[in-house]
Amino acid sequence: MNILIRTDASNEIGSGHVMRCLTIAYHLQNFGHHVTFWMDPLLGHMIDLVEKLGYVVIQKEQSVDILIVDHYQLDMTWEQQMRKFARKIVVIDDLANRKHDCDLLLDQNVIANYEHRYDELVPIHCKKLLGPKYLIMRDEFIKERAKQTIRTGEVNRLLVFMGGSDPTNETMKVLQALTETTTAFQHVDIVVGMSNVYRTEIEDLCRQHHYSYHCQINYMAKLMSSTDFSIGAGGSTTWERCYVGLPSASTIVAHNQLESTEMAEQLSAIINLGWHEQVTSQTYVKLLDSLPSQGERIRHISEQGLKITASQDQPNPWLQEMVESHYD
User: Fold this and answer.
1) Residue ranges with strand state E in the chain
2) What is the pLDDT, as a whole number, of residue 11?
3) Fewer beta carbons within 10 angstroms: which end of the chain, N or C?
4) pLDDT value at position 132?
5) φ, ψ for residue 307 (rounded to 5)?
């Protein structure tokens, strides 16, 4: 089949949509399907990365068997216009704030009423794949998941990843906090994406303080598996951390992260630090200072993350559903 993925990345949008679409593309390609990306050349677009991985990137519609849409700015009106170019339309969403004209909808997040919140937003015939059973996971995470056990609660290794673009500059806040905390770490990993406009300054600070600096990596699962605790942004990486049992604290850096972060907190799967404008370097200092005395809580967070994302009989069950949607 010919499959077209419509998504975008930018310094403002971030990299999350493109990264999960690359995971989808990888698995579909392994099934023998031909995948093309449709992306606009926005500031911080990540087109170079997508092309480097072997995909053709275009800037217009083309006739395909399946059109996959992962884009907050597109809705039913645009999707209806695409019907003449695509036999089936698949939507990846997590906002449930607009109507869609699609044949399959995938939302991997756990939030209140997640089983029914799209009932009035998609056609009756649309198949809905909802909740953590349908996590979009790269092979590296599936492999690491098989090795995971509940963390002990002791924190010697720290991982900081605030998303690919980190538009609110949380990484710099954490780096400042690390210079002030009373907690000593044996090892600190700082991860950024290519669209992080502060990455040069961050790399310099990491070099000064002997932290390990990583930019646009393809070994995140291995890094998460070797870490005791993480500080990150809300969003899809929250569930990646949970999937490998990594206890973490999350800062909400975008409105679309609000509901899922609050739900993860209610499920005791993370520490919710709150909305980024209220989170300062002192917020991170307080968190870091508290870690040595929170061993039991940290262990429980690890346990809950693994429980919520319990492995299914078939990893990435959304894949077969997506392919089969073409033949329905």
Assistant:
1) 2-7, 34-38, 56-58, 64-70, 86-92, 104-107, 127-130, 157-161, 187-192, 212-215, 229-233, 248-252, 271-275
2) 83
3) C
4) 85
5) -65, -45
Do 2-135+312-325 and 141-308 agree at the fold level? yes
User: Do the beta carbons of residue 241 and residue 248 sit within 8 Å?
Assistant: yes
> pLDDT of 159-168, one tens digit each?
999 998 898 9
Residue 284 in tokens: 């991170």
Q: What is the pLDDT of residues 119-148, one digit of tens each?
A: 999 999 999 999 888 999 988 999 999 888
Which tokens is 72 given?
Answer: 């907050």
CATH 3.40.50.11190 fits 2-135+312-325, yes or no: yes
Tell me the C-alpha to C-alpha distance, in Å, between residue 161 and each of 191, 193, 200, 250, 310: 5, 9, 15, 10, 23
Q: What is the pLDDT of residue 121?
A: 98
pTM: 0.88
Domain ranges of the chain: 2-135+312-325, 141-308
Burial class (CB in 10 A: 0-12, 13-18, 19+), 56: exposed
Helices (H), 115-235: 139-145, 170-180, 199-209, 220-225
Q: For 141-308, which CATH superfamily applies?
A: Glycogen Phosphorylase B; (3.40.50.2000)
Name residues of the chain where pLDDT drops below 70: 311-314, 326-328
Sheet holding 127-130, edge to edge: 56-58, 34-38, 2-7, 64-70, 86-92, 104-107, 127-130
According to the 3-state scheme, what is the secondary structure of 43-82?
Answer: CCCCHHHHHHCCCEEECCCCCEEEEEEECCCCCHHHHHHH
Residue with tokens 């756990």: 110
